[in-house]
Structures are given as structure tokens and as C-alpha cells.
Amino acid sequence: MAVTALPRRRHYHHHGRLRLLIPAISAVSGALLLLFALISLVAPSPADNDHLHPLRRRVVNNVVDDIGNSEFRVPTSGGKLDRDIWRSSRSKFYYGCSNASQNFTEAEAITHPNRYLVIATSGGLNQQRTGIIDAVVAARILNATLVVPKLDQKSFWKDASNFSDIFDADWFISRLSKDVKIIKELPRRAGKIWFPYRMRVPRKCSPRCYQNRVLPNLLKKHAVQLSKFDYRLSNKLETDLQKLRCRVNYHALKFTDPIAEMGEKLVHRIRTRSKHYIALHLRFEPDMLAFSGCYYGGGDKERKELGAIRKRWKTLHHVNPDKGRRQGRCPLTPEEVGLMLRALGYNNDVHIYVASGEVYGGEETLAPLKALFPNFHSKDTLASKQELDAISSFSARMAALDFIVCDESDVFVTNNNGNMAKMLAGRRRYYGHKPTIRPNAKNLFRLFPNRGNMTWEVFASNVRTYQRGFMGEPMEVKPGRGEFHENPHSCICEDSEAKKKLESGPRKFGKVNGVTRKDVWEVGDDQNDDGNDNEEQGGLTQMMKRIKMVFY
Ligand SMILES: *[C@@H]1O[C@H](CO)[C@@H](O)[C@H](O)[C@H]1NC(C)=O
Ligand SMILES: *[C@@H]1O[C@H](CO)[C@@H](O)[C@H](O)[C@H]1NC(C)=O
Ligand SMILES: *[C@@H]1O[C@H](CO)[C@@H](O)[C@H](O)[C@H]1NC(C)=O
Ligand SMILES: *[C@@H]1O[C@H](CO)[C@@H](O)[C@H](O)[C@H]1NC(C)=O
Ligand SMILES: *[C@@H]1O[C@H](CO)[C@@H](O)[C@H](O)[C@H]1NC(C)=O
């Protein structure tokens, strides 16, 4: 089966080098083709004995025709690897631990009467989840009673659901009763509705910042509403407060029964077809690509379309797409994710669930991924129309379903570093280090454009090397690196037996590249471009090359 990739690959040759290369390559490949013609006369069917001719495979990968098209031979099998592709090898030595220490006073003893904290969260489901977690900790810092947070119903995500439509509010209140006093509604004052004093706190406000900014208002007005609340508490906190974050995130926030049941139903439907599955959270929406300023080789049509969307953000300055790629800030295409997975050992019979919004380029963009993994599932293939109709107008509920199916997966992979990816990455560490693959985009992007001139073995071995430290293994990220929700180090404990064993050897942390772990939504500062990468500059986007996948 041969699948033509989108004509979206850039290719970086210098003009001069290319001019010299093309005749040379055509001459060599011409000669080789002749040789093959001769060989095939004496050889049986070419399809089933490729493995007998390693020479042929290597050469076929080097075929480049005179307009720069080439073939990339991709195996249908992920090959034999020395690792279990469904499990992290050292995960059994670690466990999630979020119980409070003995010093942590019960809520009842510290909650001041007449101090009410009201929170209005902001953003999509997972950004709001961050806000809910930090709201509980903020109330604890202020010794205040928390009112069940109000969800953002007006943002871009437009969803009229309130907290108790998404999360089990009674469970939330009772599960945290020893930590923070939580009530459903602000009491009335003198028989009338009480409007709290409204204010905002800066992002990543420290406990001292809450005491300085919020406490005086709380003492004066007795009820304060913090608006636009998401990541509003500092990353670093004392251990007991970090553990409280984990109790909220991993134990107190439970989706309502209808959402959880629907999620489990989808998971069950995949599991009846396959023991294991991969979940891919794919972000490749037009607006996301436009925002990132990345270029995917679609020529003037793509530049025009994405450029028009990009104008929506008036404050965005010009970005250099090549630089974004080099810095690992461009989301991988569906095809690139598929190739990475095959290189990491996943066969074409593996079932994959894809959680995504609108994909730029639609089916055409998804086709190579579907060719690599024909057992392709999504909400639309797993749920009936009636089931979907019931919730499709609620974006938060749709997001919750994807959250559940991705969370339950054996292997989770993303092509982005957004809020859902971070939230799930941390959660999967807490619950036994379930494999979570984050593409090392900075290095992979040097590899992808050149795949047409290397063998599968070389390509795959490079992918595996680059992905070390990006697979969700324990201790892969240094404690304190990344956002707490992504790397909840205070809530991960080591088995004492394992500790002894590990202490005898050197402790190594995976290499972490600050840039690749940055949120892809954070567009870089081009003024800092040092311009010393002239070799690659401009070259990436100068030429488009078709690389046709051919399976063997
Ligand atoms: C945490 O506390 C619960 C009871 O509240 C207990 O069952 C559990 O074993 C504790 N976990 C750890 C790791 O101490
Ligand atoms: C409890 O507090 C005491 C004194 O403040 C401190 O020495 C001890 O380390 C704390 N214990 C824990 C488990 O945090
Ligand atoms: C909250 O209560 C604790 C324990 O009584 C106290 O140490 C702390 O200063 C109080 N904080 C605020 C902001 O009231
Ligand atoms: C949340 O919305 C539901 C309807 O979707 C409603 O029945 C319930 O009263 C609302 N709760 C709050 C606290 O507003
Ligand atoms: C593949 O091509 C790229 C540029 O197009 C070049 O830099 C690289 O060295 C080539 N690799 C091989 C194995 O020929």
C-alpha cells in the first residue's frame, strides 16, 4: 500500500548543492534501477522477499526524482525492542502520595468565620481545573471558607455548564472537608443577596502575595471574589500545600456520573477490540497553527489561510517559522506523530484513539496517520449519533470525555504542550507512571525533513535516541522543573526498597530541554534571534518535497 503524503514537506538544501546533487542522484539511481531490473528478472516477487535484499531497501530510500520527490519505506511492524512498549520499566518503584502530614491542621481549627472566598475560573476545561485546584489552596492560605467555584461560561469555549454539571460537587466538598471548608453558595447577608468584593490577583501569586493583596480586603469586606482565576498560585509551595493540590486534582475532582459513565463506555468499546490502546491528543486546528506562526509546507494557500486567521491577534509580532521549528515550538503533523510512534515500536495493528478538534486540511492531513494506524478511533466512531448529540453542544463535557479516554489509555501521546497535555502528563505520573510520550520536537524536526534520504532503521534509531527522557518514565524530569501539575514531584514517593537499590547507583535525571517543554502557545521573541544558523535559515521552507510512504 502506498500513501502519498501531503505536499507539505520542506527540504533543506542549498540551491547550489541541490543543483549539483540532482544530476548525480538521478544518474546513480538510474544505474541502480537498471541493476534492479536485472535482479528482478532472476528474483521472485519483490514484495515478499525485501528482507533478503537489504541493499535494495537502502537504495530505494534514496530514490529522488528530478522534482525532488522521494519515497520513504516504512515497516508495518514496530520491530523488536528491548523495552515493554506498554509500560514504564521502573514505575513499580514509585507511587502517588498526597496525604497531609501530621502538622497539617484540620480545616475546622483554622477557618475564620466571616471570611468567604468566591472564585470565577477562566479558560477551557483544563485551565479551569488548574484554577479550581489553586482556589482550594488559596482558601486554605487565607483561612477562608471557599464557595464552590463558578465555571467560565462566556469564554471562547462557550459552555453553559456550571460546576455541578461537570464535577461531583458533594464529593468535592466532603473529600476536602478536613482541608478547607467548602459551601455551595455564598450565604445571604441581612436577608439579601451578598455581592462579594471583586478583584484579581496576578498569575503565580505567592502565599505572601495573597496575604498582602487579598487578606486586607477579606478582613474588611468578608467576601472576596477572585475573577479570571486559573494559574494564580505560585508553582513552588511548601510540601503540605503541594500535597493539597494533589488531593484536589487527583482525588476530589471527579466527573459527574453521566460523564464518567459515558467515558467508561467509550473506553470499554475500544478495549473489547484490543487489549491495549494509544490515545493521541492532537492539536492541529487552523487557529492554533495560525497562532503558532508555524509553516507546514502548504505553499501560498496555507500562508494566506493561516495569515488571515493570525490577524485576529493584533499584538502578535512576525515570527520566523523556521526558527519556531528549530526551537521545537511547532506541533507535529499527524503523519509525523504516526512515524514517531512506529519508530518507537508500535505496529500497524495497534488501536489508536484520537482526541482532536477541527484538523487543518481535514481528512487529507489525517490520511497518512490512518494509513500507519488503520485501527483509528475517535468520539465520532465510538459513540452513536444520539449519544453525541446529547452532549455535543457542551464543549466542557466533550473535553471531559476526551480527558477520560486519554487518561485510561495505556500510552498517551500529544503533539502539543497545552493545558490538557500537561494535566494528563502529571496525572499519569501520579497514577503509576503510565507511559506518556511528549515529542522532543526540537530534535525531531531536524530529522523529519531528511527522512527521504535515510533508511527506516537510521530514522527509527534516531527517533528512539531523541525520545529518551520524553517517555513518562519516573524521575525523567527534575523535581521543580515544569509546572507542578505536569510534574507533581511532591506527591510522588519512592518505594523504600527501590530507594536502596537506586542509591547504590548514580542518580540520573533525563535531559530536559527547556524549549521543547515550553507551551507551544508561547510565541518566542524573535528579537533574540542570534542568526547563527544560516545553514538552515530559509532553507527549510524554500523547497517542498513530496515524501511518499511505502509500507513493507
Ligand atoms: C493516606 O490516608 C489514607 C486514609 O486517609 C490511607 O488509607 C492511606 O494508606 C494513606 N496513604 C499513605 C501513602 O500513607
Ligand atoms: C512538623 O513541624 C515540626 C515543627 O514545626 C517540624 O520540625 C517537622 O519537620 C514537621 N513535620 C512534618 C512531617 O512536616
Ligand atoms: C491562618 O491560620 C494559621 C493557624 O492558626 C495562622 O498561623 C495563619 O497566620 C493564618 N493565616 C491567615 C492569613 O489568617
Ligand atoms: C447548575 O445548572 C443546573 C442545570 O444545568 C441547575 O439545575 C443547577 O441549579 C445549577 N447549579 C448552580 C449552583 O447554579
Ligand atoms: C539528507 O539530506 C540532508 C539535506 O537534504 C543532508 O543534510 C543529510 O546529510 C542527508 N543525509 C544522508 C544520510 O544523506
Automatic annotation (TrEMBL):
Residues 520-540 are annotated as: Disordered. The keyword Glycosyltransferase applies. The keyword Ribosomal protein does not apply. InterPro entries: FucosylTrfase_pln, GDP-Fuc_O-FucTrfase. GO terms for biological process: fucose metabolic process. The chain crosses the membrane at residues 20-43. GO terms for molecular function: glycosyltransferase activity. Residues 522-536 have a biased composition (Acidic residues). Coiled coil: none annotated. Keywords: Carbohydrate metabolism, Fucose metabolism, Glycosyltransferase, Membrane, Transferase, Transmembrane, Transmembrane helix. Belongs to the glycosyltransferase GT106 family. This is O-fucosyltransferase family protein.
